[in-house]
Design goal:
alpha+beta, Outer membrane efflux proteins (OEP), 2 domains, six-stranded antiparallel sheet, two-stranded parallel sheet, 9 helices
Length: about 500
């Protein structure tokens, strides 16, 4: 009865274990990259940064559209004594209790090329004297005006040159951020893949060494194997056990790192596939450099920074010379006891003002400011020239590395296949007793080394592949720039 109960418990535990165990989730390299670019924290940061740039662009564009605003004072109440000059020339203090209120509506349009503006405004004022029970209205039903600075620095004209470049730069920065995610995901993918390969190697080596040790024990009993060789095989089993434990720990750490970056919240085990399918696209260093210059943000960034430096020079020149400001208005004005009477037969209103400012003696301040700005422009030019050369060098080096690594893959793949076959042959020869344990260990080490070298070559190739995409923003497989990934909700 006890044995039957034990069997039932064992079967129940086995069923529970099978129901709890989940199959490993199989993922390929492109799947991991897609997941990372869609749901990782880095992807969310890139999207927020792109959206922020979009709204900055919208804010800039709104500056050149008509602006309608309303302002006023709801109540300006005052109850005090005011000095009043009497007919005999003396001063008497009279109580005054008054309130002023006003409201205005203004439509203003910026003139970007000149830095001036035109506006249309309507104003209304109300005055209440509570001591004398008097209410008066004063209004400007319509006023048309223009305000125009002369010879001054025009920030709006420079912004119209700089801001479109800044927005284009942010769009390309978004694509570069997405490709950066692909590069990092590739690195973590192969870290885990290599850990899984090492784990499989360790498991296989442990099984092989254990089998060989069992065979060696039988040979030792028959006197066909020395004690030293038997102990060496036993030591190999122990070392293989330690290697398997370490490989399992490395695999767990690599899995956690990949899941954390990609944003996978599940607890499923991951089984990565080996990306043996290599792109057939032919890449040349010259082509990579040409595409990088067309697609990357650097070319736009260089232009923007030069324009910004020139803008600083223009500001230093404009702010320290002769500045004039023209202000003119024409409209209608009236005052009345009633609100509606203000709009009956209003009279013409004109106003014009021309002001100027010009430094006469500044002890070299104007010249110093201009010289600093001009030297800063020269520094920016030299810096950009150096950065441009460095960028070109980085693109050419990455393209050449990609080409070299692609050629190296075929060699490491052949070496891996040869080493695997050689080990099987060596193991079979050892079993029949025709070679020593030393030769077997050498074949085993070469097998493991060749396998790791092949995975390492794959890792380096795919890292170079996505790094080249990031440096050029060009899809060499589809033969087109990487532009389709920009969020279509953000438009110029």
């Amino acid at each position: 009865m006890k044995s039957i109960y034990t069997c039932l418990v064992f079967v129940l535990l086995l069923c529970c274990a099978q129901s709890i165990a989940q199959p490993a989730r199989t993922l390929g390299l492109q799947e991991v990259i897609t997941l990372a670019q869609q749901q990782s924290a880095a992807a969310k940061q890139a999207e927020v940064s792109q959206e922020s740039s979009y709204w900055q662009w919208r804010s800039y564009k709104s500056d050149y559209r008509p602006q309608l605003s309303m302002n006023g004072t709801l109540a300006d109440f005052s109850s005090t004594y005011t000095p009043v000059i009497q007919p005999d020339g003396t001063t008497d203090f009279k109580p005054v209790t008054i309130n002023n209120a006003d409201a205005g509506l203004t439509l203003r349009q910026l003139i970007g090329p000149t830095g001036g503006s035109i506006f249309v405004t309507s104003l209304m004022q109300r005055f209440d004297d509570f001591d004398r029970d008097i209410t008066r209205y004063n209004g400007n039903p319509a006023i048309i005006g223009v305000e125009q600075p002369l010879f001054a620095y025009n920030p709006f004209a420079w912004a119209k040159k700089v801001e479109p470049l800044r927005y284009q730069e942010s769009q390309r920065q978004y694509l570069e951020d997405k490709e950066d995610i692909a590069v990092e995901a590739t690195k973590l993918y192969f870290d885990l893949l290599l850990a899984q390969v090492n784990q499989r190697i360790a498991i296989q080596n442990l099984a092989n060494n254990d089998t060989l040790y069992q065979i060696a024990e039988e040979k030792y009993k028959l006197g066909r194997l020395s004690k030293n060789d038997l102990l060496q095989l036993r030591l190999a089993v122990l070392n293989a056990t330690l290697d398997q434990d370490q490989a399992t720990l490395d695999e767990q750490n690599a899995t956690l790192a990949l899941k954390t970056f990609v944003g996978l919240k599940d607890t499923d085990a991951l089984q990565l596939t080996i990306p043996d399918a290599i792109p057939e696209a032919v890449v040349s260093a010259e082509m990579a450099l040409a595409e990088a210059k067309k697609n990357r943000k650097e070319e736009i960034s260089f232009k923007r920074r030069l324009l910004e430096a020139e803008s600083i020079v223009a500001k230093a020149k404009g702010d320290n010379g002769l500045n004039m400001n023209v202000f003119a208005t024409f409209g209608l004005s009236n005052s009345a006891n009633n609100f509606t009477d203000v709009y009956l037969q209003p009279e013409n209103l004109q106003r014009a003002r021309v002001g100027f400012s010009m430094p006469l003696m500044d002890w070299g301040r104007q010249r110093s400011s201009y010289k600093v700005a001009d030297l800063n422009r020269q520094l920016v030019q030299h810096t950009i020239a150096q950065e441009e050369a460095t960028f070109e060098q980085a693109v050419l080096a990455q393209a050449n590395q990609y080409i070299t690594l692609k050629r190296r893959l075929a060699t490491t793949a052949d070496a891996d296949a040869i080493a695997q076959e050689r080990y099987e042959i060596t193991k079979n020869i050892f079993i029949v007793g025709r070679i020593s344990i030393t030769d077997l260990n050498i074949a085993l080490a070469e097998k493991d080394q060749a396998r790791r070298a092949y995975i390492s070559s794959l890792s380096q190739f795919w890292a170079a592949h996505y790094s080249l995409r990031q440096l050029t923003l060009y899809d060499f497989e589809k033969h087109q720039p990487i532009v389709s990934e920009i969020n279509t909700n953000y438009k110029n």
